[in-house]
Amino acid sequence: MIGGGLAGCEASWQLAERGIDVTLFEMRPVNTTDAHQTDRLAELVCSNSLKSDQPPSASWLLKEELRQHHSLLMQAAERARVPGGQALTVDRIAFAEAASLAVEAHPRITLVREEVAAIDPEQPTIVATGPLTSNSLAEHLTRFTGSDRLFFYDSISPIVDAHTVDRSIAFAASRYDKSLDGTGDYLNCPFNKHQYERFIDDLMAAQAVEAHIPGDIPYFEACLPIEEIARRGRDTLRFGPMKPVGLKDPRTGRIPYAAVQLRQENLRADSYNLVGFQNHLKFGEQARVLSLIPGLERARFLRYGQIHRNTYINAPTLLTPTLQMKAHPHVLFAGQICGVEGYVESIATGLLAGINAAALAANIQPAPPPRASAFGSLVHYITRADSKNFQPANITFDLLPELETRVRDRKERHRLQCEKALHDFEPWLQAQQAASSRQN
Ligand SMILES: Cc1cc2nc3c(=O)[nH]c(=O)nc-3n(C[C@H](O)[C@H](O)[C@H](O)COP(=O)(O)OP(=O)(O)OC[C@H]3O[C@@H](n4cnc5c(N)ncnc54)[C@H](O)[C@@H]3O)c2cc1C
User: Which residues line ligand 1 (CB under 6 A)?
Assistant: First the structure.
C-alpha cells in the first residue's frame, strides 16, 4: 500500500480486516507535501467538511454506502464530528488521530515511513499517493503508465482565529435556518453594496503569487480562486461563494447584498475557515483584502489561501472497473490519483481498492459495484469518461444513471435515484460481506 492518506488508510484497513497482511508506506514526515502539516495518517489538507450528510444528496448516498460497508474513516468522522449544518464536518485533528490510531494498532498492518519511488508490477500494490504524489514517484508513473502525467492546479481557503472575528457584525446562522441543532452553525459576514464594490476593486487589483505555473493549465471549476471568479464579472462572486440567499442580517432584518460564510474548523470552535475563499494572492495582499470583509477588519489569520498541484492518471485508458491496471492487474489505483475528486470520493475508491485487492489475494475475480450505486457511478465515470478531456469528478447525480421513468420534480427524482442505488447496492454488499467472512 503506497500512501497513508484518506484512500490508503481505508484500503489498508479493509485489506487487514479481511485477513491480509499489509505493508503501508507513508513518506511523511521523512518527505512531506506542500499541503500536509503533520505526520498523521488521513490528514485533511484543506476544508474540514465531508460535504452534505442530508438525504437525498449524492454526497450523502456515497457516505451511506461507505457506512454500510463499515468504512473506517466514516467511523472516524462520526467520532470527530462538529456542528456543520447539513454537512458532515469534523475536527481535523480528532479525525486524523482516530484513523491513525486504528491503522497503527491493527496487528495486520505494518506502517513504514518511507517514500516509494517505483512500482514493482509483480507485487500486489495499491497506489494511493494522492494529488501531491512525490516527484520521484510521479516521474516513475509517467513511464510506468505510458501516459503523460496530468497536472492541474487548485487552491485552499484561509482560516481565521475565532476570537478575532467582530461578533457585533458577523452573525451566527445557517442558510434558511437549516441548522442541525438550531443554533446557526456558520458565522456570516454581511456586505452592503458599497462594501462589496470596494472589496471587488481591491481584490482585482491585488497581486497574485508569482506564477510558477504554466498559464494554459486549467483550474478545477469547483475550486476556482476568488480572484479568478471575480475576473469573470463583478457580480459573479455575489452569485457564487458570496451569495447571501437564505441569510438575514439581524441588525437590518434584511438579506445582505453579499455575504462571506465562516465555517467552524474544530471542536473548540476557536478557528473558522472562509467557505469557498480559496485564492493564491500574496499573503500580505490577502491580509489587506480580507480585512475589507465586514467583521474581519481586525481578524488574525491562522492560515492564508494557497495554490497547489494535482496529479492524476488517465484512468479511462488505464483502469478496469475494479480499479486494476489493464496492463498490470496486480496494481490498483485509489484516491484522488485515480481520477476522483474529494475527500469522500477518495475514501470510497480506497475502500473499493481494498476489497478488490483482498479478493485478488484469495484468487477471486473482484466484482465491480452495481452501476446504479454511488460507488458504481464513480467507477463508471473514471473508467468510461472521455479520455481526451478527462478531469477528476466529485460524486453528483449527473454521474448516477437516469431513472427509467421521467420524474420532473428534482427532489423526488433524487430521492428515487438514492432509493434505486441502495436497492441495487444491497445484494452486492451482501456478496462482499460473505466473501469477507470466508476470507477471515
Ligand atoms: C491542497 C488541497 C486541498 C484540497 N481540499 C479539498 C477539500 O477542501 N475538500 C475535498 O473534498 N477535497 C479536497 N482536496 C482533494 C482531495 O480530496 C484530497 O487531496 C484528499 O486528501 C485525497 O485523498 P488521497 O487519499 O487520494 O490522498 P492524500 O490524502 O493526499 O494521501 C496521499 C498520501 O500519500 C503520501 N505520499 C505521496 N507520495 C508518496 C510516495 N512516493 N511514497 C509514500 N507516500 C507518498 C502523502 O504523504 C499522503 O499522506 C484537496 C486537495 C489538495 C491537494
Answer: 2-8, 25-28, 33, 35-36, 45-47, 115-116, 128-134, 137, 156, 308, 335-337, 342-343, 346
